[in-house]
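Minutes, structural biology subgroup

Action item carried over from last meeting: produce the structure token record for Response regulator (Chromobacterium sinusclupearum). EB confirmed the sequence was re-checked against the source entry. Recorded below for completeness.
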Amino acid sequence: MSVDLVRLRILIVDDQTLVRTLISQALQSMGVRQDHIYQAADGTAAMRMLDIRMVDIILCDVQMQPMNGMDLLKELRCGHTANVSNLPFVFLSGHADRSNVMMASQLHADGFVVKPPKPADVEKAIQTALQRARPEIDPFSYYHISTGTDYDKKVFGRLFETRTPIAHDGPEESCLTLDKVKPGALLTRDLRSRSGHLLLPRGATISANQLSVLKDYSERYGVAQIFVLDNSETAVNPVVRS
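Output recorded by EB:
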């Protein structure tokens, strides 16, 4: 059974204006509403878009600066946007080499469309992605998948390498129940599941999406309380940074 394209909200991410325009035109010819098509020129702009727009699928270039497509997908899968972390995600690529395909598979991408994209290929990729069974929502399982980029090393690599204690020059540490923790709160202790698996290291911030997952899947994680800096007034940034 095919997906009703009229209802779809789609984000196109590509650093070439011409590519975004061509795909947008192709989507409209398929029946997608123009006001349901959003565009971003790179991963950073896409992250901002995904915090203010709810979408059904992302069509994304691989090679972009400063944040490429793989890094954007990892950020999404880790729950660092307002959209659901297992959102359908299709890559646009001039060369889907083996390393990219393997990494995309680890991050549960939904396929590749070769550039320049043909409308029929785009529609087929969208239909296939939206009819696939979605991967389990588990934003904490993607942190250790390395994309090999400078962005990934800066944002994710140092996060898990740095094991120094959190300085307590200002606010004091608090142990709060999940409903009391604000998105963007800084962890003062490692966050572990009931079984002892490391979910987030101390020094990370926790996003609204991640808090929601901990609440919705309480039986899986067994997390009821979190140790954070008592800085509730400034804890508003939902994105993890080292």
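Discussion: The chain has eight helices and eleven strands.
Next step: EB to file the record with the rest of the batch.
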